[in-house]
Write a sequence for this structure.
């Protein structure tokens, strides 16, 4: 659960944060992420210092602190470049279950409204789970009604606690038509849409347009299926079947590959 991850995280001392920021080269973007950066007791001081030093800043957050309009206005005045917010469902029942925090959905949605209202660039990360995959289009409809125009669908990384408790991992074969419908709607409405941590062959016709390849130094390059050996995209597909609890007969190699995957900046 998200709340458990936050509880386990530790706060970096302010002096260490400031020193790290000082050492960055001119033109560097400082990305604040967590845990939950807005819960850090010196987050605002570090953000102010970042902007005073002339660095651009981005934030990855659950969006709940942005429920408070004064807080959002202060962030806006500092000139934050963009904010990334995670959303786990189109209802409080689903979202609050994943976050293990009652009321978190309402706070995140209001936070998004405030971010949009204050004209801060925002991207919402829709984490696809067994609980929400049937509602992906509804989530997009909700976000569009708020004013969000950039979204990313993210498959769960099967590691850590998920290896022990796989109840949230969706069957990607069942996810496919729902994801396809949500992506089609997003593109029709001129929204910017991306997909990550998902097998490229799930939506092969879009593999060069909206899939993001974010290589992880810790990934096991050998953890591939035999069907992947002849795929032209095998070196650009970040999905790994390790720990995946469902059948994979739907996996098939992509036979034509042109370089040029989207690179999504923070």
């Amino acid at each position: 659960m998200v709340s458990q991850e936050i509880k386990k995280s530790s706060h970096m001392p302010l002096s260490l944060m400031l020193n790290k920021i000082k050492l960055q080269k001119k033109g560097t973007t400082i990305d604040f992420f967590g845990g939950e950066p807005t819960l850090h007791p010196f987050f605002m001081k570090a953000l102010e210092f970042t902007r005073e030093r002339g660095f651009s800043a981005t934030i990855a957050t659950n969006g709940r602190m942005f429920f408070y309009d004064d807080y959002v206005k202060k962030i806006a005045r500092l000139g934050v470049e963009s904010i990334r917010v995670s959303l786990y469902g189109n209802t409080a029942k689903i979202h609050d279950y994943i976050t293990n925090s009652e009321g978190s959905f309402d706070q995140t949605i209001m936070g998004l409204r405030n971010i949009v209202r204050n004209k801060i660039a925002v991207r919402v990360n829709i984490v696809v789970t067994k609980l929400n995959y049937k509602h992906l289009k509804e989530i997009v409809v909700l976000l569009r009604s708020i004013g969000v125009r950039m979204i990313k669908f993210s498959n769960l990384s099967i590691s850590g606690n998920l290896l022990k408790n796989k109840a949230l991992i969706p069957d990607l074969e069942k996810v496919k038509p729902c994801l396809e419908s949500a992506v089609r709607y997003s593109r029709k409405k001129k929204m910017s849409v991306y997909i990550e941590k998902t097998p490229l062959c799930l939506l092969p016709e879009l593999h060069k347009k909206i899939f993001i390849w974010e290589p992880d130094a810790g990934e096991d390059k050998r953890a591939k299926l035999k069907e992947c050996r002849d795929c032209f995209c095998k070196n650009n597909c970040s999905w790994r079947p390790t720990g995946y609890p469902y059948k994979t007969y739907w996996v098939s190699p992509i036979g034509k590959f042109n370089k040029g995957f989207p690179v999504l900046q923070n």
